[in-house]
Amino acid sequence: MIKAVMVMNTQGKSRLAKFYEYLSVEKQQELIRGVFSVLCSRAENVSNFIDAESIFGLDSRLVYKHFATLYFVFVFDSSENELAVLDLIQVFVETLDKCFQNVCELDIVFNYSKIHTILDEMVFGGQVVETSSSEIMKAVEEISKLEAASNAISLIPKSASGWRSR
Amino acid sequence: MSGPSLMDSLFQRTLEDLIKGLRQQLIGEQAFISKALEEIRKEIKSTDLSTKSTALLKLCYLSNLHFHDMSFAAFHALEVLSSPRFSHKKIAYHAISLSFHDSTPVLLLITNHLRKDLTSTNEFEVSLSLQCLSRIANVDLARDLTPEVFTLLSSNKLYVRKRAVAVVLRVFEKYPDSVRVCFKRLVENLENYDPQILSAVVGVFSELACKDPRSYLPLAPEFYKILVDSKSNWISIKVLKIFAKIAPLEPRLANRVVEPICDLMRKTGAKSLLFECVRTVVTSFSEYESAVRLAVEKIREFLVDEDPNLKYLGLHALSIVASKHLWVVSENKEVVIKSLSDPDPNIKIESLRLVMAMVSEHNVAEISKVLVNYALKSDPLFCNEILGSILSTCSRNVYEIIVDFDWYVSLLSEMSRIPHCQMGEEIENQFIDIGLRVKDVRPELVRVARDLLIDPALLGNSFLHRVLSAAAWVSGEYVEFSRNPLELMEALLQPRTSLLPPSIMAIYIQSAFKLLVFCLHTCFVRGGSTAGVSASASYESFDDLSIENGADSTVAHGQTCTSAPITNESIVNLLKLVELALSPLLGSHDVEVQERARNLLGFVDLIKLEALNSSGQEENESERKGVEATKIIRLVHDAFSKELGPVSLTAQGKVPVPDGLTLNENLGDLETICGDIELPSSNTFSFGYPSEEKDVLSFSNLQIKEDSGQSNESTSLLAEHRKRHGLYYLPSGKSEVISNDYPPANDPALQGDNNDNASDLVKLTAESLVPKRKPNHSKPRPVVVKLDEVDEKPVAVKQLESRDDSLSGAVRDILFGSEDILPTSSRSNLPNSNRKGKKKQHMITQVESKENVVDDGNSSSRRRKDHSHGKERRHRKKNAEERNETDRKEKESSSNHPRRHKSRQRAEEPLKVPPQTSVIPDFLL
Predict the structure, then answer these.
(1) Which of A45, B4, B37, B907 is most buried, taking the most CB atoms under 10 A from its CB?
(2) Does A165 score more than 60 pLDDT?
């Protein structure tokens, strides 16, 4: 079971946070800070694991990957395999890369909804349901189309009424 | 009316505008956010769903990334959810899964929305609502939506079906009865050939099997097939996880599965799968020699890999093997020790753990030496990690692996001098603990303590203060082993002690007191006049114990006299030194320091006259006074020379409660009466009072009624001692009563007596012939006094378990077919009275089972101790309170969710039904 997914930049600013159990925002903030304080003290080229039990409680593990200015962090319990989750981070980043052509931090900053959509396609309620980035892309595109279509209907009457009232 | 809302929607900031604004930071982030929140609060009330949903999205953003509470928007999220547009729905679902939880008031209003979307023809809408359900489902939602989930489990859209499978996990967890409906379909999906579905199902089963492996044993054939056929690493990993849980329960299954796992291990190229195979073998198949060997081979590959991740995992796997096959670790000793200097902190810690696993009584000295060297070189964090693990390993099981305590004590002092050392507290405890338990090590302990105390540089290091306090205590308590008490005295009273915190300062002063008394005693009573000798002889005759101690100290004294003779002159100097050092402390703000300083100075005042007199004058002149002073010295010395035994953690509980004294009831009332008056102080007073009075009497009159029983006197003296050294006793005055019962550390006479009285377990380890650092002769391991610790009181975790029980119970019902499956609806409509009856019955069984647990704990302690009522009573009372508490909770929760109990109750029955072995189908045999 995956417990949480976080993306934060090297300054500790949270860019994405997804917890698969309900946590109050204060608690979320505390956890993210806790993770960051450990992450930022780690050197390059060391292993990608952190002792998560001190932060998240018993039976929790944490792997992270560092890309450019971002840390990608997955927290999970003993029913996941550490290396497989590392691969999963890779899939996530690859998908982002495909989606935004050379993804950078700004893409993630400005595409809040889309990032969540991508993650939701991969991880469903803490369980991994899709590990192929092309499948994820397909679904995300479909969803975007649907959204656009439903918004398009809305735009016309709204703008029309707006003009009329002027 | 439509004006403002229209304007709002026209000029509403989108999420992108919000993010841009945030990034520009014209007015500061916090100010900007609060302005934005204000806008959102307005916009979200709009009747236009587009405006509303945009506001909601912005709110989600602020909640998710800037941690602002969004619970106020719960109802608005529901309104957006009712929109027919997909984009609105998506935002609403996102908001709901971010902010809803079990106690969100509008949670139940969502049921129909979810139902509608679950039956939608648009797979993405279905997916959204399933996703939401997987996050927020509670008992009611899970119950009400079970039929829809059931339908979706056989949906022909893969996209939907795998999500339906995944959501089942949450539904089962929240509403175990749904197992009866959905389980069969879930199992059918195990035979699906689509890897995506299979992956989801296996994932669900691996989660379920984690919590209760036994229930899923009957599915072993299916899992086995998947294990053999699977092409996907992800699925294989999950199946391995399942087997790691269920195989140990059924040896025949393990026999059957171990080979395919080894095959997989040989063939696979994926590191993740390889590691999972290794982990499965070392955790659950550790008795299969060949499999373990293969796994170890693979571990070795990991260990020498460049990738720190693999190296770390290799070490991790090694530490799992270590518990059962220590040879594996020793085989890879070199790699492990080399990893101690790896730049990666994870690898360092893991290898440290492994090194500690290798420690035995033969190599503890070597390994500790190597580790201390590492500690000197490494960063503070890891240094303390190393020291901590040395300390905990060496002290494990009452210093089981330590043979040479002299060495260990000097190791402790060496460790405390390491610059980064922050383990002062633990070292302090061990110093004192060893002093109490191991009699033979005391001379060395005192020597080590002296070295620590005498070094003024150490006083500046605040991490060392705790160690110093132990050193001070040791040198005061075991002063008879000191080579030069005068020197120690100077060390204890040196000016830099002002750097110490008051609590430790107090210990210093108290130790100085003991030292002073010892010096005076040696000078006047023992080595002094004939009157002194005869007096001490007569006084020794009435106290058996002090003969022992007295003899010891004479011997010790005999040795020390040559190095530092205590003359009258030195005594006079000593007294001056004490006065000089302590008089400033009379004005100390700390009560402890002030009081102890006053005690000591008061004593000096009493003695001073005689000390000064006897240095110059004839005996008969000051005889009367002299005798008096000698008596005082003797008395105080007697109090201090009473040996302390280690105090069992549970000692307090063994104090018998006198008849007619009802402790429990009155104290409860007191609390309400006294309100915020500090109770503990009044408590100690009432206990301390009688003994204090005795002291006063004996000191003022010096008329000791010797026939009134030495027990009385020694009790009072001991009580006095106890009072002064409160730090080293259990906090309550109650333990005074039993203080006599402790045999002094390995006193042979008492040992004989106590053999049947199991209160003290003296453990004699076999004499070891391990080569020592001192090559001349190998000495036997000194006796270590041990007290039997009554087991930690069992904590009942019923509440937690029962949930899972109901789930596994339901699963077993299905798999073992002990009950025919009824549709849920008919079950949940059981008559109310019936439900209540069951609930009550359940509560009773729970209470009873708890009673049993408590009784068990007590009877075992009763067997060991013949007087142990006090603890029991308190125990009982506490338990009774707990019980009340749980009962109350039970009632509360039952009023909220009456159905839970029903299901829990039912779940308890089938537990005993199935004979496990018969369940495994023949193919495995």
Answers:
(1) B907
(2) no
The answer to whether residue B431 is domain-embedded is: no
In a domain, B437, yes or no: no
Kindly state whether residues B633 and B677 are assigned to the same domain: no
Q: Please list the residues that pair with A70 across neighbouring strands.
A: A9, A67
- Choose from A124, A140, A143 for mutation: most chain B CBs within 10 A: A124
Using the Cβ of B90 and the Cβ atoms of chain A, whether some distance falls under 8 Å is answered with yes
**Chain A positions in Cβ-Cβ contact with residue B88 (cut-off 8 Å):** 150
Q: Which runs of E-coded beta strand occur in B259-319?
A: none
Percent share of chain B, pLDDT over 70: 65
Clarify whether residues B808 and B847 are in a common domain.
Answer: yes
Q: Are residues B689 and B752 in the same domain?
A: yes
Judgement on whether residues B682 and B635 belong to the same structural domain of the protein: no
Q: For residue A79, give how far its alpha carbon lies from the nearest alpha carbon of chain B (Å).
A: 7
Query: Predicted confidence band at B589 (pLDDT cuts at 50, 70, 90)?
Result: confident
If asked whether residues B634 and B660 sit together in one domain, one would say: no
How many helices and strands in chain A, by DSSP H and E? 6, 7
Residues of A in contact with B271 (CB under 8 A): 83
Angle at B601 between CA B711 and CA B723, to 5 degrees: 35
User: In this predicted model, which residue has the larger pLDDT, B385 or B866?
Assistant: B385
Residue B734 has what pLDDT?
Answer: 39
Nearest CA in chain B to A150: B85
Interface touch A151/B271, C-beta < 8 Å = no
Using one digit for the tens of pLDDT, what is the confidence trace for B660-694? Answer: 776 666 565 666 666 655 444 433 333 333 333 44
What pLDDT band is residue B264 in, cutting at 50, 70 and 90? very high
In a domain, B501, yes or no: yes
Q: Please identify which residue in the block is written with the tokens 């029980």.
A: B805
> Yes or no: is domain A2-165 CATH 3.90.1150.10?
no
What's chain A's length in residues?
A: 166
Same domain as B759, residue B656: yes
- Alpha-carbon distance B740 to B873, whole Å? 22
B81 to chain A nearest CA, in Å?
14
CA proximity to B354, closest of B369, B333, B370, B379: B333
Work out the pLDDT band at B380, boundaries 50, 70, 90: confident
A4 vs chain B: nearest CA distance in angstroms?
12
Is B343 at the interface with chain A, CB within 8 A? yes
Residue B13 covered by a domain: no
**Which of helix, strand or coil describes residue A145?**
helix
B804 and B721 fall within a common domain: no
Which residue from A22, A124, A165 is facing B134, i.e. has the nearest CB? A124
For all residues of chain B together, what is the average pLDDT? 74
Q: What is the DSSP secondary structure assignment for residue B457, as one 8-state letter?
A: G
Report the amino acid identity of residue B773. Answer: R
User: What's the one-letter identity of residue B164?
Assistant: A
Closest CA to B484 of B508, B527, B456, B518: B518
Q: Is the pLDDT of residue B535 over 50?
A: no
B317 near A CB under 8 A: no
In this complex, is the C-beta atom of B166 within 8 Å of any C-beta atom belonging to chain A? yes
Positive or negative, the Cα torsion across B309, B314, B317, B323? negative
Q: Across residues B860-866, what is the average pLDDT?
A: 42
**Nearest-angstrom CA–CA distance, B502 and B508:** 10
- Suggest the residue from A48, A129, A142 to mutate for an interface test with chain B (most B CBs closer than 10 A): A129
pLDDT at residue B646 is higher than 60: yes
- Give the per-residue pLDDT at A7: 95
Contact B136 A22 (CB under 8 A): yes
Domain limits at B679? Answer: 652-765+780-787
Q: Could you read off the pLDDT of B737-751 as tens digits, one per residue? A: 333 444 444 433 333
The tens digit of pLDDT for each residue in B281-296 reads: 999 998 899 999 999 9
Query: Which B positions 43-82 lie with beta carbon below 8 A of chain A?
Result: 48, 50, 57, 60-61, 63-65, 67-70
Cβ contacts from A onto B, under 8 A? 158
User: Is residue B760 helix, strand or coil?
Assistant: strand
